Structures are given as C-alpha cells and as structure tokens.
Amino acid sequence: xxxxxxxxxxxxxxxxxxxxxxxxxxxxxxxxxxxxxxxxxxxxxxxxxxxxxx
Length: 54
What we know:
Largest sheet: none
Helix content: over 70%
Structural class: mainly alpha
Number of strands: 0
C-alpha cells in the first residue's frame, strides 16, 4: 500500500509540474497550482481506496 501511494503521489506531482509549465494563463506569473493539487488528490484517493477495502 505504501509503495502504491508513494508512486501515485510522485507521478501526480510530475504530471502537475509539466502541466503548470505548459499551460499559460493571461498573467505571466499565473499558474494553476496543479503540482500541489494533484499529489494531494492522489494521496487522498489511495487512502480512500484502502479504507473502502476494510
């Protein structure tokens, strides 16, 4: 379970990092904060899936 959660969180962070770098908004300093949001969602989904199994 821990390895799955770590891998999912790291993968979500990398995807969020690339998405933040490539999606441009009107403001040059603006970004969507996906590098923080996606790992939190991934970890939450891992926790919820483990709770559902029990």
